[in-house]
Design brief:
It is built from 11 helices and 8 strands. Strands 6-5-4-3-2-1-8-7 form an 8-stranded parallel beta sheet. The termini are far apart. It binds 6-hydroxymethylpterin-diphosphate.
Length: 329
């Protein structure tokens, strides 16, 4: 297993369960000659990126407005990947990706989360380099940004995040919670953008106390963020449903969402189509909308502020109905 491993333990597109595998975090590629300096060794405090926006500006303002609304913001998933666990290959062609983004906007999406590397484990696949990710994003990102909805970049690589921010993305979604790429926290601090700090583990371990593990992970991430100078108001926490967790641990994480209120930060939940649903009700990823809605409504009830989903219209409808009923209780 490579040194930098990450896994959702999710299914492949055919629904077949995969053994947890790894994906690598290659050294930053220079192929696209990025218009920003590459972070060098120098610790988490080093801030090699030019500050192009004051802390809390642009993406921060847009995000804060969404977080103040009475129902959670809906983040729609846009995977420009050949191998994502539920929709790999469907939106790899730029026109299809743009069509998908337009459809999500028509459905009322609040944030579009674009990713060019699957977190799905796979065997024998070529590791995705930063250059690969950027070449997938390049033909799509400007068109998605032009739709006028805040865009988040789902990448664990600072080089890819910087590239996406240069193209107009407003939020960074790091599935390794600032703990995989030492250049990520300085980048986010310098750009003054919000970051989603997701809990992750190299491997699921059924023997551990997952809640304690998540709390310790978030404390580490928040320490890294503080040392880099990321303001707390730019941080969103995410339990990382399906990431380095057994199905039961994903259910526990969802059940104990309120525990993470101790950090005083907004929570994002992404349970969409994840494998824990199939552990309760055998199903292919695309057959898991009912289970996804159940999980997301319970997350919303516990105060989740952002819901990450593949099914925007359906999720928005469910959230609106639940909120309307709750308001009369
Ligand atoms: N889940 C996935 C990817 N990125 N980011 C956050 N913050 N939270 C999540 O739960 C999350 C995430 C996995 O879903 P998907 O993007 O559809 O799959 P893949 O990683 O295979 O592209």
């Amino acid at each position: 297993m490579p040194a930098c491993a990450g896994t959702t333990g999710e299914d492949d597109a055919s629904g077949a369960r995969k053994i947890d595998d790894a994906r690598t975090l290659p050294a930053p590629a220079s192929a696209l000659n990025p218009p920003y300096p590459t972070a060098k060794a120098g610790g988490m405090n080093a801030s090699p990126f030019p500050s192009v926006a004051p802390a809390g500006s642009a993406g921060g303002g847009a995000l804060r407005a969404l977080l103040e609304r009475p129902i959670p913001a809906v983040m729609g998933v846009l995977n420009v990947t050949p191998d994502s666990f539920s929709d790999g290959g469907e939106f790899i062609a730029p026109e299809q990706a743009l069509q998908r983004a337009r459809a999500m906007v028509a459905d009322g999406v609040d944030i579009i989360d674009i990713g060019a590397e699957s977190t799905r484990p796979y065997t024998g696949a070529r590791p995705v380099t930063a250059a690969d990710e950027m070449s997938r994003l390049k033909p799509v990102l400007p068109g998605v940004v032009a739709l006028g909805v805040p865009v988040s970049i789902d990448s664990m690589k600072a080089e890819v995040a910087a590239f996406a921010l240069d193209q107009g993305a407003a939020i960074v979604n790091d599935v390794w919670g600032l703990q995989r790429d030492a250049a990520m926290a300085p980048l986010i601090a310098a750009r003054g953008v919000p970051v989603i700090v997701m809990h992750n583990r190299d491997n699921a371990d059924p023997a551990i106390d997952i809640e304690a593990d998540m709390k310790a992970f978030f404390l580490r991430s928040l320490d890294i963020a503080a040392k880099a100078g990321i303001p707390r108001e730019n941080i969103v926490l995410d339990p990382g449903i399906g990431f380095g967790k057994t199905a039961e641990q994903s259910i526990i994480a969802l059940a104990r969402l309120r525990e993470f209120d101790m950090f005083g930060l907004p929570i994002l939940v992404g349970a969409s189509r994840k494998r824990f649903i199939a552990s309760l009700s055998p199903s292919e990823p695309k057959e898991r909308l009912p289970g996804s809605l159940a999980a997301h409504l319970i997350a919303a009830q516990q105060g989740a502020k952002i819901i990450r989903t593949h099914d925007v219209a359906e999720t928005l409808q469910a959230l609106r109905v639940a909120a309307a009923i709750e308001s009369k209780q």
